[in-house]
Design brief:
The chain is of the alpha+beta class and about 475 residues long. Helix content is about 20%, strand content about 30%. The relative contact order is 0.13. It holds the Pfam family Glyco_hydro81C.
């Protein structure tokens, strides 16, 4: 039998961005594949109630809080924390809470956008992409285009429909500007929010601190309402928000079109150029030679990721330095340290014992496997080949039971509802194994096993031939 190694990317429906890679020899004969035992998870939520009828696949990545459980957990869609509830969406420009051991964002519903109708309908997701999610409230004909990195939140208001805006803070002032399409809202906490409409609307400001906007247009086109907080009170920043308020993003994707590059591309509507926000890593990688982009270095929003800086342009090319993927260190090891490294290897490899791994979760077990595999590669690089046989023995004893289903304390199972791998422990508890049973951190936990398998295949080809004929070629999802 001829075996050909390949890497296969297996995406989970809940979160394809947290994909994992399976290394398996592709079988070229008719041998039946080995299948992991089937299971029905007791802890997976059913997000389908939040899907519109025209949604072809399940949402993932940053918007999963909008579909899990009650769908009312806030998500960070830079620069805002956004929380949907029954018939409303709350926006927060978060402050940061910093202590000696952690930093987190504090959610406060600075603005809540809802419909005046007496409705308790929940939202549905009608579309999504790498950087965007579209929320709809069918009973009120409100549509929210939520795109990561947009300084504005965009709401579509259908003909003859209305929306209201309230705040947990006292409203200090509300005024319409010289333009019939711009309004200014000042809150008692010092925040200043700008509201733009694509066409004139009727607005009212009641004593219960509620703003109402109504679409009175005679045409069928919806009014686009754009809401943005001022990052500070400078007139220069307000002028920037005014200038780019007529162009809004509908969706955004990450495209891998060139080696070591990723293109961020947004679908936009409206007039003029698109204003988005970049965090520090984006700015470090942003190519000035490709795409018509300009950086507004003085236009900044704060965030937990560092300052978000304005970038004008609907297509960014991010270029990373080429980092070679090798078994050994990329710069080599100074031979003056060989003896010290060998002493450390003797100590660490000598302590390897598969029966002494007390924690049998896939996370801890996988870390032990990856750690041992790295010992083998370090030993190979410094020429300490005598130790590799000990690592080989440990890897066989720890990896093979997980592949063939003979590891009694735990094991991989095929979960039918989402179509992916979970573990015995994860099938019964959403908190077990760092949420492995609800498809959390699959890329990390399964990555440890994949790395261990790859190293074992390198140092022991005979094991590959032996186990491959039985199991490895079938370590795939059927």
């Amino acid at each position: 039998m001829v075996l050909e190694f390949q890497i296969r990317k297996v995406r989970t429906l809940v979160n394809p961005k947290l994909a994992f890679y399976n290394i398996f020899p592709r079988q070229l004969d008719d041998e039946q594949p080995f299948l992991f035992p089937l299971t029905n998870s007791k802890v997976l939520p059913d997000p389908s109630k939040f899907f519109s009828e025209n949604l072809l696949s399940s949402p993932y990545s940053f918007c999963q809080n909008f579909v899990l459980n009650d769908g009312n957990i806030q998500e960070y869609i830079h620069p805002y924390l956004i929380k949907p509830s029954d018939s409303s969406v709350s926006l927060c420009y978060p402050s940061l809470f910093v202590s000696s051991h952690s930093i987190h964002q504090v959610f406060t519903p600075d603005l809540t956008i809802s419909t005046p109708k007496d409705s308790q309908s929940r939202h549905v997701i009608s579309s999504f992409s790498d950087f965007s999610v579209t929320l709809e409230f069918p009973s009120s004909n409100l549509t929210f285009f939520l795109v990561r990195g947009s300084p504005y939140v965009t709401v579509s208001l259908s003909q003859h429909e209305s929306l209201s805006i309230t705040s947990i803070h006292k409203i200090s002032s509300f005024s319409s500007n010289a333009s019939p399409n711009k309004y200014t809202l000042q809150l008692e906490n010092g925040q200043k929010w700008l509201i733009y409409t694509s066409s004139p609307t009727i607005f009212s400001f009641s004593f219960d601190m509620k703003l109402a906007f109504s679409n009175i247009s005679s045409g069928e086109a919806p009014v686009m309402v754009r809401i943005a907080v001022m990052p500070d009170l400078s007139s220069e920043n307000e002028a920037v928000l005014d200038r780019y308020s007529s162009c809004y993003p509908l969706s955004g994707d990450a495209l891998f079109t060139k080696p070591y590059c990723v293109e961020y591309k947004w679908q936009k509507k409206g007039l003029g150029n698109l204003l988005m926000l970049a965090h520090p890593l984006h700015l470090q990688l942003l190519s000035k030679d490709e795409g018509n982009v300009s950086v507004l270095k003085h236009f900044k929003y704060r965030s937990i990721d560092g300052d978000l800086v304005g970038v004008v342009g609907d297509s960014w090319m991010l270029e990373a330095e080429h980092v070679p993927v090798t078994w050994h260190s990329t710069r080599g090891v100074n031979q003056a340290y060989y003896d010290e490294i060998k002493q450390a290897l003797c100590r660490d490899v000598g302590a390897l014992c598969s029966s002494k791994i007390a924690n049998t979760s896939s996370s801890c077990y996988g870390k032990s496997i990856a750690r041992a595999a790295r010992f083998a590669m370090i030993a190979e690089e410094v020429g300490f080949l005598d130790l590799i046989s000990l690592v080989k023995k440990f890897l066989k004893e720890t990896i093979q039971p997980w592949l063939d289903g003979t590891f009694r304390e735990n094991g991989f199972l095929y979960e039918k509802q989402r179509g992916g791998l979970i573990t015995k422990s994860g099938a019964d508890s959403s908190g077990a194994e760092c949420g492995f049973g609800v498809y959390n951190l699959h890329h990390v936990q399964l990555g440890n096993f994949v790395y261990g398998i790859a190293v074992l295949a390198k140092i022991d080809p005979n094991w590959v031939r032996s186990i491959g004929q039985k199991h490895i070629h079938s370590w795939k999802i059927s």
